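QA checklist item 7 of 12: single-chain prediction sanity check.
[x] sequence parsed
[x] length recorded as 911
[x] structure emitted
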Amino acid sequence: MSTREAVIDVPESPDSDRTVQIDTTLYLPERTPAPAVLLPHGFGGSKASVAAQANELAQRGFVVLAYSARGFGRSSGQIALNSLDHEVRDARKLLDWLATREEVVTDGGGDPKVGVTGGSYGGALALSLAGVDQRVDTIAPVITWNDLGQALLPNSASADGVAGETPSPGAFADDGVFKRSWAGIFFSAGLSGADTANPGQEASEPGQDDDDAAPAATAATTPPQQQGDPRPAGPVNGACGRFQADVCAAYTEVATTGKAGPQTLEILRRASPSAVTNKITQPTLLVQGEQDTLFGLDQADANAREIAANGAKVKVVWYSGGHDGGSPGPELRGQIADWMAFHLEGKGTDPGTAFEYTVVGAFRSSGAPSLRNVVAPSYPGLNGAARTERKDIELSGREQIVVNPAGGNPAAVSSLPGLGSALAGSSSLSSRLSLDLPGQAAVFQSEPQTAQTLLTGASTVKLRVAAVPGQPVPPEGAVLFVKLYDADGSGVRTLPGSAVAPVRVAVPADGTPVDVTVTLPGAVRPVEADHRLQLVVSTTDMAYANAEEPAAYRISLAAPTLSVPVVAGVNATSDVPTAALWGIAIVLAIVVITGVVAWFRRRLTADVDPDLESVPLVIENLTKSYPGGLTAVKDLSFRVEHGQVLGLLGPNGAGKTTTLRMLMGLIRPTEGGIRVFGHRVSPGAPVLSRIGSFVEGSGFLPHLSGAENLKLYWAATGRPLEQAHIEEALEIAGLGNAVNRRVRTYSQGMRQRLAIAQAMLGLPDLLVLDEPTNGLDPPQIHQMREVLRRYAAAGRTVLVSSHLLAEVEQTCSHVVVMHKGKLVAAGLVDEIATGSGEASFRVDQPDEAATVLRSLSGVHDVHVDGEQVHASLNGMPRATALQALVAAGVAVDQAGPRRRLEDAFLELVGE
């Protein structure tokens, strides 16, 4: 086997004279001429991403053309999302070029014998290319989409339900809910377009070149950049990266509004195979993953229905992977190669049109999952095949009220988009991460099953949704997330495929109920005897753009049955991994993750002390130790009340910053705990939203203005903009017109003021500031002192850590002094400063004043210092001593504590 590198020029667009350079590698088998396979890559990858599969196909005897799509790897141009006018036209030019190669078998002039396969982005390219170019002889798209608009903005609600002929149809309703997490991952992957993976390819044989390209596409013997250079070949379009401006604008629209306008929908339509599936007549193998929250089984179902309607031969395979479960393994890749061999060369047996799916069974004693492949005669509902059998399962549950929190935060968890592939090999790991929040979810469930039900596809249920009278109803309608759990006898729940069905329902504000049929995500799950099916309707989901307006809805069952698809078949193979260590690792991971989720649930719902819900901060026996014997904080306890400005003092190494980091949930204590308004603080605790802080540095983006930084920070919290009080914060910052300048031009003092304003966004109940006056000049320090006092006087609480003792003395009402990790003093500033009760009096008769003070019971250490007389009052109120002096005829000009806070501090820490 050998390879050839080539750069092929294609038109930038249909009406442009400019060209885009497509970087390719041609893999040549031992014997040529041979049929060709065009191999596009997944989104964010390049030709290097598919090198291993290209080698496998070449070893099977195919000429393989792998290439980097425009905007990726070393290919130039900008990403248009597999647009018919761009990437699909590029692929047609690549077919022109293949037709000129002597190594490729042709069906006639300009018509290579060619199949197309690819995963995700590459799979959609295979479908769209087959729809517009009949020179394609067969396709095998993998884990890809049918309608990109429906994939990224799904709506699983319909008034009358969807046709149930096939196992996993999607509702594909309009006005969908934005799949924010996956779309963000997509956009990030396209910002640079560069693929830095090591190509790992064989070197081209010397003495050969590629100067015999077709007229429509020129070739060169060197790529646009040197081998190994990871930089993109084309220009980066500012904040849009390597996306076309219209694609970037479309993403910006849905990312900021959660809705897609007509222009955005048109862009997504042009990037969807659904625009041309009515023209696909080539034999098609559709491979889709059962663990895929990006492109679910409904996308493959739609492709199958639309292509089969043309009379084309269609075979469907569901496997136990996907974007959340891993790419096809060697056996399935071999099945794709067999499909190509039969339909391009007539080799081997006919793969037919049987429907295959994988069942992940219960765990064996070794801890490894059992997999069995089930084969049905055909995909139900296609080309006259019998429709899908459905089983009705009774559900029960009363009407329940669910609340959508302001900002849609905190949100329920159903999946970890982009991370699921890290759990490949054990689909049940991610499916047990689901977390529903109290008050946000309605629950309905079945009775325990009396026998196994093999759920195979998309279940449906009819719900009744109504607004709560007197509560606001968002104009865009109610956004809900419906999911179907498998709950075992002990109550442990598994969410098959980690997928949810987002729905958007228009509900009248007067409380009139609306019935809606929800099509749940397609899944394969053996629901064992004694297990229950549990239907959960939630108002939030972390992976989607949640409704931000607070609202409440009444949820009930409009029909008491859940319709579950069942596809009968025969077991083809059974695969039980025998690697004991791998099995043990899976079991341990499940135990750990399940324990963490259970602990997180308990923390959210149970770890609240009702007696402390009105107390801003309570620290009890707090200890933080590190390996090596270092204890930064030891047995620290104190309490902060409403209206206090508390100063946290201590020399370097006293443990102040460690204490603040534990308070902010940035690190965990070794012992003891912290409660804010009765809630125990831990990383990610919801109560942290009631704290405004400036502890670890501001992290401002230097290329944005001060005002833009504040708005961006608040947007990241997910709360409504009107709750930010940005104008008040900017007034506090006192930056004037400088708020509109880029932060990179700010001085240290200006950054400090902006950071404090950021901490005050939303006017939090507890404000925590670490060295807030660093970099401020005296007038600014004075202004900050007044701001903090007024902030606390409004009923809030301020905690300040500072080295400026004189400033703490003038600003704070209370103080806590730490030394070597321990509490050494706590109380009112005056009490700490006066210590043993030493006082000073400025008088007109110093000697007489000294005599009077010595005559008072308990007063000692009286001495004269010019016009001042100093004495230790030993607990006597200063007012009593003052009264005695006045009664003796001594005129007192000034009276006060002798010591300053600085003196007391130095004495407390032993310096």
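[x] summary fact logged: The domain at 2-142+179-257 is CATH 3.40.50 (Rossmann fold).
[ ] second reviewer sign-off
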